[in-house]
Prior knowledge:
By secondary structure, the protein is mainly alpha-helical. Helices cover 79% and strands 0% of the residues.
Amino acid sequence: MGVSENTKGLILAMASSAFIGASFILKKKGLKSAAAAGTRAGVGGYTYLLEPLWWAGMITMIVGEVANFVAYVYAPAVLVTPLGALSIIVSAVLAHFLLKERITKMGIVGCLTCIVGSVVIVIHAPQEHSLNSVEEIWVLATQTAFLIYVAVTISLVLVLVLHFEPQYGQTNILVYLGICSLMGSLTVVSIKAIGIAIKLTLEGVSQIAYPQTWFFLTVAIICVVTQLNYLNKHLCFRLWIHSMLQLLPQYIM
């Protein structure tokens, strides 16, 4: 008996989480080295581009994202997306051993909540409705309710980027998290569309000629690049906070 498509998607999504979770640690170690040698990424520095560890983390993340991308081809987004939370568990465990960051009790509770939530959603994930072309995805994506959601999401991202990031980006971690999370919701939709387009094309129903395919690809690239930029700033901000907490006892004494 063959493996179901949902199972394939589940395995790929879990592998993706492992790679992406590990990539955060590698990139943070690279950012730490870069911060010691030059300007921090959080204040506009790009010395991390010269760090091998940062590139190792980037390659690991690419591998994870590719696995995640393929997972969307086989399984519904409602199954694949929640499993991305498992990368948090991988990052927390590796950070404890490799970065010497202590996991607090609330952190443990948060990790357990992620696991329970992911398991519940995976167990009840529905079978995906079969789509025959990118045009069908376009019809779904241009429904009024979804267009309103896109407009609200983009508006919130612009407010965070143009107003809150310059003023509070270096003091409130929620700014970077908000930008990455909001853009991520649009990334999921566009990646799902591209995955289906590739799958149908490989099955003999070419989707290359459809302008919608290239539109979704453009949206995906913009979203991913934006997320990577602010993710680096987010990681650098965490690094700065961690350093300040380590130095705090010296100032108290």
